[in-house]
Predict the 3D structure of the following.
Amino acid sequence: MKKILITGTLGQDGSNMSEYLLRDKRNKVYGMIRRSANSNFINCRGFLDNPNFQLVYGDLTDEVSIAKLVQEIQPDYFINFAANSFVGCSWDMPLHVLDTNTGGVIRCLEAIKKHQPNCRFYSAGSSEQFGDVDYSPQDIKHPMKPRSPYGASKCAAHHLVKVYRDSYDMYAVHGVLFNHEGIRRGEEFVTRKISKGVARIYDTIKSVENWRHRHGQAARVKPIELGNLDAKRDWSDSEDFMEGVWLMLNQDDPKDYLLASGETHSIREFVEKAFDVADFHGTWEGEGIDEKYIDKGGPHEYVLVEVNPDFYRPAEVEVLHGDPTAAEKGLGWKPKISFDDLVMRMVEYDIRQCLGKNENPPYSNS
Ligand code: F7E
C-alpha cells in the first residue's frame, strides 16, 4: 500500500486530492487537520468513513507535530495543500502567511529529510508568484514578481524546494497552480462569492416573484458587492488539477510544472456567465466605483452587482494567463473541465443548496 500524508484536508484541494487517491484501494490517505473548536467537515463527508482514510492532527506552524507525523506514518508521499491561502488578507497578517506558507514548507522538508528521506514531497505553488507579469501566457520560466505577502511567501517556498532538492537529493516538487475553483471553494474567493451570490439572488427573486405575480411587487435584492472587476484570471476546476499534481509526484525525476487552463477571463465575464446560468441577463452601467450590473429584462429592474472599494487590494495582479503546454508534453496532463462548465457547475450546485437540497459537495471527476 502507498501511504500518502495530505495537509489541508478540509479545504478544497486537500479534500479533492484525498478523494482522487482513495479511488485506488492500494492507497492509504492520512488527512492532516488542525485542532479547532469548530472544524467544518463538509468537503470530507463523502470519505470520512472510508477505511483507507485516517484523520491525523498537526499544524504547519508546529514542527514537532509535522516531524511526529512523518516519523510515525513513514509516508511514501507528502502533499502539502495547507496554507494561509487568501491573498486578500495576506497584507493583514504577513508574518503568519510567511510562517505557514514558507516556514511550513521548511518544516515539512526537514521532517522528511530526517525521518523518511525517500518520501516524495509536493509543495503547492501559485500563479501569484508571477504577480506583475512581463508577458502572457506565463510559463514556468516567467520571473517571480509577486504583488502580495502571499505571492512572496510562495516564491520563497519555490526556491526552498529547489534548494532542498539540489542539496539533499530529495524528490521534492513545487507545482505552480493557476486559480482553481469548484463547489468546495471557500466563499472568500471571488468565484464562490459570485456563484453563492447568484444563487441567493435567484432564490430571493424567484420565491418573491411567485408571490409577486399576485401582488405586483418587486423582490428586495441585495446586490453582490465586488472589488476590481477588470482583473483577469486563468480559472480551472480544482478536480482537474489533482491528476496533474499526482503526475508531478510520479515522474522519473522531480521537475516543477505549471498547471493552467490556458485561457484568461475577467471577473466581469465570470459575473455575466454566472448570472446567465440562472437566466438573468444584465448590462453594465456606470464607471469605477459607481459601476453596476443591472437586469432590466423583467417587469422589475434589479441591481445584481455593485462595486465596493473595500474589496480592492493594496496591490493588484491585473492579469494571469498560464501556458499549460509543458505539462501536456512532460506529464501528459490536460484540463478537462471548461470555463463555462466550471461556472455552470458552481452556480447550479449553489442554487440547489439554496433550494434546500443540502447535499455534500460531490467529487465527480473520473
Ligand atoms: O481573487 C478580484 C481580486 O481571491 C481573484 C487563491 O487560491 O488563486 C487565488 O488567489 C481576483 C483578484 O483569488 C473581489 O482582486 C474582485 O484580482 O478569488 P481571489 P486570487 O487572489 O487570484 C491563486 C492562484 C492562489 O494561489 C490563491 O491561494 O478577483 N476580486 N472582487 C475579488 N476577489 C475577492 N476575493 N473578493 C471580491 O469581492
The mean pLDDT is 95. Residues 227 and 310 are 7 Å apart (CA to CA). The two ends are 21 Å apart (CA to CA).
